[in-house]
Specification:
The chain is an alpha+beta fold. The protein has six helices and ten strands. A hairpin with a 2-residue loop joins strand 7 and strand 8. 29% of the residues are buried. The mean pLDDT is 94. Residues 40-171 form the N-acetyltransferase domain.
Length: 232
């Protein structure tokens, strides 16, 4: 009788970092710093206060004023490693807050993490910096935290977020039906991931895409997909 059973590949890689790094994470176009609600909340609120649609798929919001938003940010920080996205090219970069994102659901024993709570101001969407900030957290996840798996989860109805996940190189893994209630409505959640095996080629793609010679007056010459196709 054959009693051999498949048990999975042994993992002998280094352990994950003991805790998420505080930053800052510095790129050419953006810098990510630990979110300080009284400092970063009011200028970000000014950027987003006339865009209530940004909150359609978020767990909270919209907010009536900067004070309510700052209070909500304090609550987020109780459970999230939240980062402010600063525009390096602004006259006062420290106050040019263009959005936020979080390194969250960190399962360090299994070396898994997630990028989430992503909010970009309308003026920042579809910019070079909006792509670079995701690259910076990916780099932190795989090279500093030594994660094996990095996740992106979003409402199945959130067309923009689903499209962004695929554009950024995440692989769609399936839909968790009736995953949660969001503001009294059903939310089915789509799961995406990048694993450490994917990272070397994705890093090469982002690095080549972000190169100065890929842009002309801020307009990309090749998309991420086209850059990936051009690499061996």
């Amino acid at each position: 009788m054959n009693d051999q059973r498949e048990l999975g590949e042994l993992v002998a890689d280094p352990a994950a970092s003991p805790a998420p790094l505080p930053g800052p994470f510095v790129g050419k176009h953006v810098t990510l710093v630990a979110f300080d609600p009284p400092v970063h909340g009011p200028p970000l609120f000014e950027e987003i206060k006339n865009a209530p649609q940004l909150w359609d798929y978020m767990l909270s919001g919209p907010f009536q004023d900067a004070g309510a938003y700052v209070a909500a940010l304090h609550r987020m920080l109780e459970t999230l490693n939240l980062y402010a996205i600063l525009d390096n090219h602004a006259p006062q970069p420290g106050l040019a807050v263009k959005g936020h994102l979080a390194l969250m659901r960190m399962d360090l024993p299994n070396r898994v993490g997630e990028v989430g709570t992503v909010l970009f101001a309308p003026s920042f969407q579809r910019s070079i910096g909006s792509t670079e900030c995701i690259f910076l957290v990916m780099q932190t996840a795989f090279e500093d935290l030594k994660l094996r798996r990095f996740e992106w989860k979003c409402n199945s109805l959130n067309v923009a977020s689903n499209r962004a996940a695929l554009r950024l190189g995440f692989t769609f893994e399936g839909t968790f039906r009736k995953h949660m209630l969001l503001k009294g409505r059903n939310r089915d959640t789509n799961w995406y991931s990048i694993i450490d095996d994917d990272w070397p080629i994705l890093k090469a793609v982002f690095t080549k895409w972000l190169a100065d010679d890929n842009f002309d007056d801020g307009r990309q010459k090749k998309s991420l997909a086209e850059v990936r196709q051009s690499l061996p």
